[in-house]
Design goal:
The chain is mainly β. It has one domain. It has a six-stranded antiparallel sheet with strand order 1-2-3-4-5-6, with no helix packed on it. The termini are close together. The relative contact order is 0.20.
């Protein structure tokens, strides 16, 4: 279990073409252990006026400490406001850690 965490997050999504690349996430557990993931995205118009939908798919590539051999995957689904560029959403997936 990851427990309480912070994370840094970077991805570029071209909402005109729908393509997204360069997805990098670094989750940092409360004790300082890291989980690293790489991913891609797809974005486009949503059914809600003035919002775009973005779906991101990530694969866990490893980590440090108890997550050194971590594997798994997760998906982030979010809406992005065309007016403010602020987004919110959810993520769901599985982290398998052997330590």
């Amino acid at each position: 279990m990851l427990g309480k965490y912070d994370f840094s997050y970077q991805i570029t999504v071209d909402l005109l073409t729908g393509d997204g690349s360069g997805g990098l996430i670094d989750f940092v557990a409360a004790n300082g252990d890291h989980i690293y993931a790489e991913g891609t995205a797809f974005g486009g118009p949503s059914n809600i006026p003035n919002f775009n939908e973005v779906t991101e798919n990530y694969v866990i590539t490893g980590g440090t400490g108890r997550f050194i051999d971590a594997t798994g995957s997760f998906t982030i689904s979010r809406l992005v406001s065309n007016l403010t560029a602020i987004s919110s959403g959810t993520f769901e997936g599985t982290i398998l850690a052997l330590h």
